[in-house]
Amino acid sequence: MARPSRKMRDLFGILKDKASISKAALFSKPNTSSLHLAILRATSHDPSTPPHDNHIAEILSFGHSSRVTASTCIESLMLRLQNTKNSFVAVKCLITIHNIIKSGSFILQDQLSIYPSTGGKNYLNLSNFRDDSSPETWELSSFIRWYARVLEYHLFTSRVLGFFLCSCSSSSNSCCTSKTQEEKVSALLNGELLKQIDVLVGLIEEICKATEFLNFGKNKLVYEVMGLVNGDYYSAQKGILIRINEVRERMGSFSFGDSVELICVLKRLENCREKVLLLFLNKIGTFVDVLWGLIGEMKDEIGKEKENEQGRMMMIRRRDKQSASARLGEGVMRSGESVRFGSGRLSLNWVPISIDESGSRF
Questions:
Q1: How far apart are CA 79 and CA 77, in angstroms?
Q2: CDD domains from the xrefs (predicted)?
Q3: pTM for the predicted model, two decimal places
């Protein structure tokens, strides 16, 4: 059976949206009908345009009411995402979730973070998402799976940091300001500091996998996603920079093992450099140069510390070896020395033995 043409699929999508909106208007409870309508409008089947700013703003407004309303909003959005088989609806749901992470109120973000996972390989349950209705949607499906993993890592990062990583250039969230982050970071234990650097580098590594989809640049939905992800990268590198500066301040307190772990994390970040340039060329400014320069300095400093530590360890081993040799030398009986017994069971520590000419002992 031949697949329907692009125009027919778009027409079916428009009709389906109208039917869903009508159903929501007629059968939804009065206090939730506006919520369901807002989600349907923001996540339409239209393949050409991302969610309208007004529709996103309407959804975000439900985070300024009761916790019950915010919970209903997240539940409706997640059901819409997990029940759809349409790639355009799915990517618009993810864009809406991304906007909640970036600009949503605390109550809305909180409901998103505690939404229960119901299977699949990741929190958003899109590891097996496939839309095979056309070659375009088949390719877009792989992009959607990657985007879901990025947002999943966002949720994981928020648990480690204690707040949602957001686009600090456009967000008013007080947790994102440099001063607030620096104060929080200065109170961390060394292990916690390394853990936060590790998860931020992990987020950048996941973002960099988007280089597989550079040929999707003309798609408006993909372009919208990459604009949001660009803000995430900026926030992640800023967070890393703040934490590396803190590491430099307390470098003397790091153990040899912690230093080795940090070197490994920084090498992972350096491995992302070329991909970052491909993804965000001319969009990330000179701030990134500061980060790469600081990473190089840190590696040099840690390398010197490592060499010094290895030198100290070699000196200790050499000294211990010399001490052991000296102790061993003292324990070897020289010719002509008397035999001494260390046992306390003998009444004499030193026993002379003589033999007369006839061979008798006395």
A1: 6
A2: ANTH_N_AP180_plant (cd16987)
A3: 0.76
Beta bridge partners of 355: 361
- The arrangement of secondary structure in 7-136, i.e. its CATH architecture, is Alpha Horseshoe (1.25)
Residue type, position 235, single letter: S
- Express each pLDDT in 277-304 by its tens digit: 888 765 555 556 677 777 777 777 776 6
Which distant-in-sequence residues (6+ apart) come within 8 Å of 239 by Cβ?
A: 161, 165, 181, 196, 200
- Cβ–Cβ under 8 Å, residues 265 and 198: yes
| Cα 113 off chain centre by | 15
CA distances from 215 to 51, 187, 272, 330 (A): 22, 44, 19, 77
Place of tokens 């070659």: 135
The answer regarding whether domain 184-320 maps to CATH 2.102.10.10 reads no
Alpha helix stretches (DSSP H) within 104-219: 106-113, 135-161, 178-186, 190-208
- The identity of residue 29, as a single letter, is K
Joined tokens for residue 204: 């950048």
